[in-house]
């Protein structure tokens, strides 16, 4: 069995750390694309909307304590507002992405050696990228002592300090990610798929807001970090 968990937060009340939140228009398109892509791959899809901080931590704790013996891979898609330093926003307050991963690092022993993938569609700051123009299996009796940080994969929608973009049709990252998985899941591993997504977003996408020069014609560069210990195909 394969599972993917989607934590979706499209809108927020006003709070002290995020005084003027705006609805995340287009995020419902990302949710639809994620559900379709991962359902077609045979994943069990669970969706959570507008969770507050306590609910997010409780859900992460619940997942970390589950018996995942029959699970081959866990995927998490987090669609929310964000800021520098790994900060993400629940419906009531900010929290650290590491708060979630730490629970999985110290979770049930059945999580050991299981790939845990995160796809995060959120800003990592407010800087804008103007861009630049250039020419162009094993023995069952064998045991291992494995680091708790092993077998994580995180794909961020932008590099640290920079904004991520979204339209009414969905976000740059999630739409390209789903299309790439749909197209390449039979032939490429997740790292090669991520590289293809990086290139598409970097080369094919720019913002289009001619009435607002501050945000017009800006670029976005996704970033991948991983501690996978084996190649992974969906």
From TrEMBL:
UniProt cross-references to InterPro entries, sorted A to Z: Caspase-like_dom_sf, Caspase-related_regulators, Caspase_cys_AS, Caspase_his_AS, Pept_C14_caspase, Pept_C14_p10, Pept_C14_p20, Pept_C14A
Region of interest (Disordered), ranges: 1-30
One Pfam family here: Peptidase_C14
UniProt name for this protein: Caspase-3
Family to which this protein belongs: Belongs to the peptidase C14A family.
Protein's organism: Papilio xuthus (Asian swallowtail butterfly)
Record's keyword terms, sorted: Hydrolase, Protease, Thiol protease, Zymogen
Record carries keyword Hydrolase: yes
Bias-annotated ranges (Polar residues): 11-22
């Amino acid at each position: 069995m394969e599972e993917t968990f989607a934590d979706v937060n499209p809108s927020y009340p006003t709070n002290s750390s995020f005084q003027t939140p705006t609805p995340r228009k287009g995020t419902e398109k990302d949710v639809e694309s994620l559900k379709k892509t991962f359902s077609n791959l045979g994943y069990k899809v669970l969706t959570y909307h507008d969770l507050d901080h306590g609910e997010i931590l409780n859900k992460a704790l619940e997942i970390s304590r589950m018996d995942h013996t029959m699970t081959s891979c866990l995927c998490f898609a987090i669609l929310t507002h964000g800021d520098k330093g790994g900060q993400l926003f629940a419906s009531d307050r900010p929290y650290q992405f590491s708060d979630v991963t730490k629970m999985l690092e110290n979770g049930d022993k059945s999580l050991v050696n299981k790939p845990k993938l995160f796809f995060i569609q959120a800003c990592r700051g407010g800087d804008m990228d103007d861009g630049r123009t250039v020419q162009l299996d094993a023995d069952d009796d064998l045991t291992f002592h494995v680091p708790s940080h092993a077998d994580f994969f995180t794909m961020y929608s932008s590099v640290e300090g920079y904004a991520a973009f979204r339209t009414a049709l969905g976000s740059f990252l999630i739409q390209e990610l789903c299309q790439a998985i749909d197209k390449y899941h039979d032939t490429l591993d997740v790292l090669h798929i991520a590289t293809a997504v990086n290139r598409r977003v970097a080369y094919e996408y720019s913002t289009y807001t001619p009435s607002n020069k501050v945000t017009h014609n800006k670029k976005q560069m996704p970033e991948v970090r991983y501690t996978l210990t084996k190649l992974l195909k969906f």
